[in-house]
């Protein structure tokens, strides 16, 4: 009977495994056509400057809606696109959308400090990312300052000289460089100091329980003060409640991003969202207790 059970379990696992493989293969082939078929769109999430209590910049995040697969998370398809090289084309498309959105908002009178795009390590391997972004910016008549580059800490740890070279070139060109998801990898601050960075983004996992987890409070506070002593500014990701915000303000965190302020919204919704968020922040500054989303 134990044998029978084992066999069933084995069948169960192999079925689960092949379903997983199947899903991956389907995603991969669907991904190849997604750009041509116009299935991607971008959303933008405001990032708040905690000193002025105003929207300072935004992060551009990709969305994929497939007619049969439905909504596919970037956490699922970006790694696949990195493996098969499609990330290069997707990444360029993202950069173009971000520049275009920034320009559009500018024409409507909204001056953002920048729009941040997420860049994968794979995009550095080809070596001409910097030039490609410059061309896109030139088409829109924008300064390099308009596009901020986010790279995950995990990637920064892998490659050293190569990374420093590419990041330096981007920074020299005028882009702000952010380290995304900071704190989940194992990089040290002394290592960070060797890199040409501007902003450290504390990973959401440290922010989630900030209100009642003493360890997370210590870690966040340490990241903020170390970053400041190295001349970097700090963004907290995933801020969802006023208690988290209060602690971050107390620690002199520079920027915050999260559902407390706004979820990511489409390009057309963005201007109204910024107005609405700034309104709420103004009331918060004047002491109104209710910052939660309406
Ligand atoms: P990320 O760069 O760390 O982006 C932040 C993620 O946190 C986004 O998820 C955002 O929607 C989510 N988020 C923001 N505020 C909150 C909050 O208060 N609570 C919670 N629970 N989540 C919040 P999203 O859009 O699903 O993206 C996931 C990841 O996929 C991104 O993490 C990034 O690594 C990657 N990604 C997204 N768009 C792109 C892209 O255009 N290119 C590349 N290479 N990667 C991308
Ligand atoms: Mg990011
Ligand atoms: Mg992040
Ligand atoms: Mg992340």
Automatic annotation (TrEMBL):
* Span of domain EAL: 24-278
Task: Output the superkingdom of the source species.
Answer: Bacteria
Q: What is this protein called?
A: EAL domain-containing protein
Q: What range of the intact protein is shown? A: 705 to 998 of 998
């Amino acid at each position: 009977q134990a044998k029978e059970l084992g066999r069933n379990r084995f069948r169960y696992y192999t079925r689960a495994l092949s379903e997983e493989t199947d899903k991956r293969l389907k995603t991969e082939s669907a991904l190849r056509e997604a750009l041509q078929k116009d299935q991607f769109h971008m959303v933008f999430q405001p990032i708040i400057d905690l000193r002025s209590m105003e929207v300072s910049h935004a992060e551009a995040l990709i969305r994929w809606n497939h007619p049969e697969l439905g909504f596919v998370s970037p956490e699922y398809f970006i790694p696949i696109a990195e493996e098969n090289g499609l990330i290069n084309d997707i990444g360029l498309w993202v950069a173009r959308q971000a520049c275009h959105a920034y320009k559009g908002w500018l024409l409507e009178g909204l001056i953002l400090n920048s729009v941040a795009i997420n860049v994968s390590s794979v995009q550095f391997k080809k070596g001409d990312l910097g030039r490609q972004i410059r061309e896109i910016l030139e088409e829109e008549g924008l300064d390099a300052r308009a596009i901020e580059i986010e790279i995950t800490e995990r990637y920064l740890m892998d490659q050293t000289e190569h990374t420093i070279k590419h990041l330096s070139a981007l920074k020299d060109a005028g882009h702000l460089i952010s380290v995304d998801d900071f704190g989940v990898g194992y990089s040290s601050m002394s290592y960070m100091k060797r890199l040409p960075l501007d902003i450290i983004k504390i990973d959401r996992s440290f922010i989630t329980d900030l209100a009642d987890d003493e360890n997370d409070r210590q870690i966040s506070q340490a990241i903020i003060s170390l970053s400041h002593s190295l001349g970097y500014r700090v963004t907290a990701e995933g801020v969802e409640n006023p208690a988290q915000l209060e602690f971050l303000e107390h620690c002199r965190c520079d920027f915050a991003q999260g559902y407390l302020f706004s979820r990511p919204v489409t390009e057309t919704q963005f201007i109204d969202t910024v107005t609405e968020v700034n309104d709420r922040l103004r009331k918060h500054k004047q002491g109104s207790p209710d910052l939660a989303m309406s």
